[in-house]
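Contributing new records

If you add data, match the layout below exactly. Sequence lines come first and carry their own label; structure lines follow with theirs. Keep one chain per record. Anything else will be rejected by the validation script.
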Amino acid sequence: MVKIYYGNGICEIDSSDVKYCDIRIRYPIEIEDTTPYKYILTVSEKNNLIIIAKFRQGEGEPLKTLFNYEGNLSIMSANILNGNGDRVSCVIKRVMDYSELLNSNAEDMTVKSEDLRATGIKTKRISKMKLKNPIIPDLESAAGQFYLQDGSEYIGSYHIHQDTTQRMSGANHTERSENLYFKEEVEGIVIDKLLLAKSTNYRHTKESKIRSTIPHKNRRRRAI
């Protein structure tokens, strides 16, 4: 059984075997992602949903601290999948006392006992769901995947802005980061026209529309 604890601006989980987790909350909050490097946290403003998933393979810190937050956090439900993709039961608990947090040793805690409160409210109320620094960093492109504005091919590190889904050059965002583009491909033929590398553009390409008419089992998957 997985346990999620939250209170005074911190949300944590007690399981080291979590592949995917979505948390539905009652009110919008402002979130700072504190998941380990191999995980990614995204939010759905429309549904007040927080999604955490294992994004990178390999060794790394186990999932423990999920996020810090500001606002009135009230968790309604959570769905958890373990490393095998099996759904596991979950208990959600608003922290009342330091000793309840993760049932762990005091030296392992990430918050001091005097900082905990019997409430999910932290500093201010939020009117719109927001993720601070919504960037997925340290990604690597492949040959033929991206281009720069001048039409030259780009192979190297890039990052994604979650709010716009735009891909940009560089492992992290800097003043030198450039927008990345892709070229549409229809039935294996590349169309020599640059499109901004963002999810909305890909969904409106001819190939995407063609694929939408093909039965799911016959579709050829293509990631951008």
